[in-house]
Design goal:
Blueprint: E1 9-16, H1 20-25, E2 33-39, H2 45-52, E3 58-61, H3 68-78, E4 83-87, E5 91-93, H4 95-105, E6 111-119, E7 133-136, E8 143-147, H5 148-154, H6 166-175, E9 180-191, H7 201-221, H8 227-246, H9 250-272
Parallel strand pairs: 1-2, 1-4, 2-3, 6-9
Antiparallel strand pairs: 4-8, 5-9, 6-8, 7-9
Helix pairs in contact: 7-9, 8-9
Length: 278
């Protein structure tokens, strides 16, 4: 039996072109076992992390961007503790909140995930609650504590989803299982959305492509796909792409281009990989 709650919890985090200020945030987990997967690793990446982080951590990496789903699955396979906190580098959460999540996991045998109340900025106030948790059909996956054995049982992320919609798919599978998800009413985290990676042309393109591709893949997997929607959005994005290029609206044009690519990748996937979703 672990002497402290911290000994029963691992932290798993995937990095991809992560700003240095967010890497520094990882020092908040120095009391836990931390597993890091660094994507698109450079030759000096490990050394840079060693210089910034003031604790020992397990390090895994890839020269390529494998996607959030695949890299997270790799980390989960390496976890040896009963629980792991799946989170992102732009999330701030203290030890007390993490420990409260772990204690909540023990009150029922059917709990698979427990999440804190997540805000986008400072100013969270603790409230007196008669009940310290509520059941949820969906949790914000940017910060949630997982029962490792149960998560492995149902499968973590579907690797067909590269970046977005993998959490929606995971929650849908949990809701079809005998397990439940809960949100703590006295655990808190701050998430500065879309700041876990540097904003540049390549990152923005990957985000747009992954979002639109994942949207259609999710709809197809759960029998919500409508061909007329695909045709309509393809034509709309093609038109607005040309419009935005003519009027030099680069960011909007990039979004249209990324959505068009995402739609085309989805079509290619369905044509050649139908069995992958069965």
């Amino acid at each position: 039996m672990p002497k402290n709650v911290e000994e029963d919890i691992s932290i798993i985090i995937t990095l991809y072109k992560t700003p240095i200020e967010n890497i520094q945030l990882l020092n908040q987990y120095r009391n836990f076992r931390v597993l890091i997967f660094n994507q698109a690793e450079k030759d000096d990446s490990k050394k840079r992390l060693d210089d910034i982080l003031k604790f020992n951590f397990e390090y895994y990496s890839s020269k390529k961007n494998l996607g959030n789903s695949r890299s997270s699955n790799v980390l989960l396979s390496k976890v040896k503790t009963k629980y792991c906190l799946f989170t992102q580098p732009d999330v701030t959460v203290d030890d007390i909140s993490i420990k409260k999540l772990a204690n909540l996991m023990k009150i029922r045998e059917d709990i698979i995930f427990a999440g804190p109340i997540i805000k986008s900025n400072e100013g969270i106030k603790t409230k007196d609650n008669k009940q310290n948790y509520i059941e949820k059909k969906y949790l914000d996956a940017s910060c949630m504590l997982c029962d490792v054995k149960k998560t492995r049982e149902i499968g973590f992320f579907d690797e067909n989803f590269f970046l977005y919609w993998n959490d929606e798919d995971l929650m849908a599978r949990v809701n079809k299982s005998n397990y439940i998800m809960i949100q703590s009413l006295d655990s808190f985290a701050i998430h500065k959305s879309s700041q876990s990676s540097k904003n540049d042309f390549k990152v923005d393109l990957i985000r747009g492509v992954s979002f639109k591709y994942g949207e259609y893949l999710y709809d197809y997997k759960y029998k919500k796909f409508r061909f007329i929607k695909l045709i309509r959005q393809f034509i709309q994005n093609l038109f607005f792409m040309l419009f935005n290029i003519v009027f030099l609206k680069r960011k909007k044009a990039l979004k249209n281009i990324s959505y068009l690519i995402g739609i085309l990748i989805f079509i290619k996937f369905i044509v050649f990989n139908k069995k992958a979703l069965l």
